[in-house]
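Ligand: adenosine-5'-diphosphate. Inputs:
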Amino acid sequence: MDDHLAQSESKATILIVDDMPANLEVMTNHLERQGYRAVVALSGDEGLERAEFVHPDLILLDVMMPGLDGFETCRRLKANPRTRDIPVIFMTALTDTADKLAGFAAGAVDYVTKPLNGAEVLARIDSHVTLYALRRQLAEQNDQLQQEIVARAATQAALERSNAEFEQLAYVASHDMQEPLRMIASYLQLLARRYQGRLDADADEFIGYAVDGAKRMQALINDLLALSRLGTKAKPFAPTDCNRVVQTALSDLVVAIEESGATVNVSKLPTVMGDETQLLQLFRNLLSNAIKFHGEAQPIVQLSAEALDAEWKFSVQDNGIGIASEYFERIFILFQRLHGRSQYPGTGIGLAICKKIVERHGGHFELQSQPGQGSTFSFTLPRT
Ligand code: ADP
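Predicted complex:
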């Protein structure tokens, strides 16, 4: 900063407006010795012209001049947008306070009295040139910031538009695909039932693959639909009893619980402000994963809520296969899965949905896990 100012100071141009050539010469020599560039004008009119043309860093302006006097010259400089920011210092022989005030009223930043004291004039010029350079620098930075703000707002708006369009597209596409897919799946299942063992072994196998593919496609489309509904079908928040929501989630998962022999313990849960449909999805996805990703042992799942200062912390703890810490962030990204479909079925959409839901409700996720040691997925929701 200092270097920058020193540089701009050393190259600064000072316009001296005075009708006395002798004064001009003394000041010019004095300023040039100090590293300034001096430009002169012998009258107010010439001063106005030069100021516009040269755009000096400061103007030293004599008050008493024939024709346009210093006050009027200053007023005109300040009325012209191209010169109004240039600092003006009056040179006056007048000792009357009213004259000095008139100079300030005309827009001057300072005055020096004649006969001029070289060191004093220089000190004042130095400080106003520095101030002017700083002001210009600030104004430039401000302009840049404004431009950045406008550009960012435009990018944000474009992003929101394209997000909304994508959500609409995903919604319409997955919604419209459901019906034909349902038809394919049910006729394939009909084929499987009716012709099992009546064609050759290859045919049974092929039909099996086709049924399996159609089921996977249905799961994927249902999950995509759920994801796009987060944006298109979001409901306003209302008081929601999490005990009731979790009971519904568990009844949706009854087959998975029975098949895996899982034990699910739920402690008393609070009522929160939220979108019930989304909270149901959240609990169902987390419980479903806690049951699904089990190892040799039968799944034991614990769902609890802890009251912190301003929020509730919900935790879904399991005794399953666990996750290495390097994957903690990745698994919340859409379509990211750590296992093949043959090991654990899934679409890789569930946790991305959970994260979006928790963030929309003003909370965040935390994950504690180690491979082979089970996992605890925790998320916060604001306390009402
Ligand atoms: P999906 O369950 O359909 O695979 P998710 O988005 O729900 O997709 O989860 C992403 C991945 O995170 C899973 O494929 C799995 O590798 C890992 N994961 C999620 N929950 C658990 C859990 N409770 N225990 C171990 N791994 C998990």
